[in-house]
Amino acid sequence: MKLLNTFNRRSLLASALLVFATLAAQTTAYSAEIRVVTSGAFTEAYKKLVPIYEAASGHKVISAYGASIGNAPDSIPSRFARGEKFDLVILSEGGLEALMKDGKLVPGSRVDLARSQIGAAVRKGTPKPDISTVEALKQTLLNAKSVAYSASASGTYLSTEMFPKLGIAEQMQKTAKKIMSERVGAVVARGDAELGFQQVSELIYFKELDFVGTLPDAVQQTIFFSSAVVQGAEQPEAAKHLVRFFTSPAVAEIVRGTGLDPAAKP
User: Domains of the chain: which residue ranges?
Assistant: First the structure.
C-alpha cells in the first residue's frame, strides 16, 4: 500500500480543478445541506475531500463521526438508536449490513468507497517490534506489557478471531484493552499502551507514533468501507451526488494517500 506523507496546497488545488470538471455534468441545480455520519477509517480521506466537494458543488456537508459498531454513545449504531437524522452513512461493511437488515438504510444504495487494512504503531522513539510473520506477531503480542485495540470493526476482529487463532486469547485478556470513543493512536501516543492496533488510515497521522506495519497476510483482515443512503433522508439525491464524488477517479490519489485503497477500479 503506497502512503503519501503530505498533501500540499498546490496538489489539493490541482485535484479540485479535476473534480470541478468531473462534477460539471453531475451537479444538481440547487444548494443542499447533506448530513453525513462516517466512521474512523474513512475520516482522514473524508476531511480532505469534503472541502473540495463543497467548493465544487455548492452543497454544504454537515458531518458527524462514530465507530462502525458497538454501543459507545457516539457509535453509529447508538446514533441511529437515538433517532439522529442523516442523509448518508459511511462505515465498515459489517456495520452497514447490520443497519441495512434493521431497515435503517435504503436497499440497493450501498457503494463501496475504499478498502482498509489493520496496522500497528508504537510511541515515537520506542523500539519497533517485529510483526512481519504470524509467529513474530504472536511473540510481540505476548511480550507486550499493554496492547490497545479499537472498539470498532478492527478490534472486534482481533479479539474474537485473530487472538483465538493465534492461541493467545487468554493471555490477551490480561494485557489488551478495548478503546472506546477514542482513537487507539491517542492512547499509545500518551503512553497508556505500549502497542496499538487499528486501521492503517487511523494510525498514520499521529506524529507522536512510529508506524510498525500491517498485519501479516495470513491473519490480515481487509475491510470495505462503504456508503448508503439513510431511509427517510431529506437529501437522497444530493447524498448520491456526494458518493459519486468520493468514488471519482479525480480524487483516488487523495484517498490512497490516507492509507486506504480506493474501491473503484481506475
Answer: 9-116+224-262, 118-219
Torsion angle (degrees, nearest 10) of CA 72, 196, 199, 40: 30
Q: Give the C-alpha distances (Å, rounded to integers) separating 182 from 40, 149, 219.
A: 10, 10, 24
Chain segment 30-64, per-residue pLDDT in tens: 789 999 999 878 999 999 999 999 988 889 999 99
Judge contact between 52 and 59, C-beta under 8 A. no
Exposure class string for 101-140: b at 16+ Cβ within 10 A, else e: eeebbbeebbbebbbbbbbbbbbeeeeebebeebeebbbb
Residues with Cβ within 8 Å of residue 52, at least 6 apart in sequence: 12, 15, 16, 19, 251
Per CATH, domain 118-219 is 3.40.190.10: yes
Output the nine-digit C-alpha cell for 22: 468531473
Q: Strand, coil or helix: what is 45?
A: helix
Q: Which cell is 218 given? A: 495470513
Which CATH number among 3.20.20.70, 3.40.190.10, 3.40.50.2000, 3.50.50.60 corresponds to the domain 9-116+224-262?
A: 3.40.190.10
d(CA 43, CA 77): 17
DSSP category for residue 128: P
Bridge partners (DSSP) of residue 189 are: none
Q: Is the pLDDT of residue 186 over 90?
A: yes
Q: What is the pLDDT of residues 135-144, one digit of tens each?
A: 999 999 999 9
